[in-house]
Design a protein that fits this description.
The protein has one domain. The chain is of the alpha+beta class. It contains 2 helices and 2 strands, in the order E-H-E-H. The relative contact order is 0.19. The N terminus is likely disordered.
Protein backbone atom coordinates (compact mmCIF):
# COMPACT_ATOMS: atom_id res chain seq x y z
CA UNK A 1 0.00 0.00 0.00
CA UNK A 2 1.50 3.31 -1.11
CA UNK A 3 1.62 6.45 0.95
CA UNK A 4 -1.26 8.84 0.44
CA UNK A 5 -0.80 12.58 0.48
CA UNK A 6 -3.48 14.82 1.89
CA UNK A 7 -3.57 18.51 1.17
CA UNK A 8 -6.00 21.17 2.24
CA UNK A 9 -6.10 24.59 0.67
CA UNK A 10 -7.54 27.43 2.75
CA UNK A 11 -8.12 30.64 0.84
CA UNK A 12 -8.84 34.12 2.16
CA UNK A 13 -12.07 35.54 0.69
CA UNK A 14 -10.40 38.85 -0.21
CA UNK A 15 -8.30 37.03 -2.80
CA UNK A 16 -11.23 35.65 -4.77
CA UNK A 17 -10.78 36.32 -8.48
CA UNK A 18 -7.09 37.22 -8.15
CA UNK A 19 -4.63 35.25 -10.18
CA UNK A 20 -2.38 32.77 -8.36
CA UNK A 21 1.05 31.94 -9.73
CA UNK A 22 2.93 28.67 -9.36
CA UNK A 23 6.25 27.33 -10.63
CA UNK A 24 6.83 23.59 -10.64
CA UNK A 25 9.55 21.19 -11.69
CA UNK A 26 8.62 18.54 -14.22
CA UNK A 27 10.16 15.75 -12.13
CA UNK A 28 9.61 16.48 -8.46
CA UNK A 29 8.93 13.66 -6.02
CA UNK A 30 7.78 16.23 -3.44
CA UNK A 31 5.21 17.80 -5.80
CA UNK A 32 4.08 15.08 -8.23
CA UNK A 33 2.37 16.25 -11.40
CA UNK A 34 -0.96 14.79 -10.29
CA UNK A 35 -0.80 16.85 -7.07
CA UNK A 36 -0.01 20.02 -9.02
CA UNK A 37 -2.96 19.31 -11.33
CA UNK A 38 -5.23 18.78 -8.30
CA UNK A 39 -4.05 22.01 -6.67
CA UNK A 40 -4.67 23.97 -9.84
CA UNK A 41 -8.14 22.46 -10.19
CA UNK A 42 -8.94 23.21 -6.53
CA UNK A 43 -7.87 26.82 -6.93
CA UNK A 44 -9.90 27.27 -10.09
CA UNK A 45 -12.87 25.49 -8.51
CA UNK A 46 -12.71 27.98 -5.64
CA UNK A 47 -12.84 30.89 -8.08
CA UNK A 48 -9.09 31.49 -7.88
CA UNK A 49 -7.60 31.56 -11.37
CA UNK A 50 -4.23 29.87 -11.37
CA UNK A 51 -1.35 30.30 -13.77
CA UNK A 52 1.02 27.40 -13.25
CA UNK A 53 4.29 26.94 -15.09
CA UNK A 54 6.12 23.64 -15.35
CA UNK A 55 9.76 23.50 -16.29
CA UNK A 56 10.71 20.55 -18.54
CA UNK A 57 13.68 18.46 -17.50
CA UNK A 58 13.87 20.00 -14.02
CA UNK A 59 13.62 18.49 -10.57
CA UNK A 60 13.09 19.77 -7.07
CA UNK A 61 15.40 22.73 -6.22
CA UNK A 62 15.78 23.74 -9.88
CA UNK A 63 15.72 27.44 -8.94
CA UNK A 64 18.20 27.20 -6.05
CA UNK A 65 21.76 28.06 -7.20
CA UNK A 66 23.28 26.55 -4.04
CA UNK A 67 21.79 23.17 -5.02
CA UNK A 68 24.31 22.61 -7.80
CA UNK A 69 23.12 19.10 -8.67
CA UNK A 70 19.57 20.32 -9.29
CA UNK A 71 19.97 23.94 -10.35
CA UNK A 72 18.84 24.81 -13.87
CA UNK A 73 19.90 28.37 -14.65
CA UNK A 74 17.71 28.79 -17.72
CA UNK A 75 14.58 27.54 -15.93
CA UNK A 76 15.36 29.59 -12.81
CA UNK A 77 15.81 32.75 -14.88
CA UNK A 78 12.54 32.16 -16.71
CA UNK A 79 10.73 31.54 -13.40
CA UNK A 80 12.07 34.84 -12.00
CA UNK A 81 11.11 36.72 -15.17
CA UNK A 82 7.60 35.32 -14.98
CA UNK A 83 7.37 36.12 -11.27
CA UNK A 84 8.47 39.72 -11.74
CA UNK A 85 6.02 40.19 -14.62
CA UNK A 86 3.28 38.72 -12.43
CA UNK A 87 4.10 41.07 -9.55
CA UNK A 88 4.05 44.10 -11.85
CA UNK A 89 0.49 43.39 -12.96
CA UNK A 90 -2.43 45.14 -11.32
CA UNK A 91 -4.15 42.85 -8.74
CA UNK A 92 -7.04 41.99 -11.04
CA UNK A 93 -5.25 42.60 -14.33
Amino acid sequence: MGAQRHRQVVLHPAGRGRLNLGHFAENDPFEPSADVDALQAALRGAGRPAQFHRYPGTGHWFAEPDRTQAYDGAAATLAWQRTLAFLRRPPNG
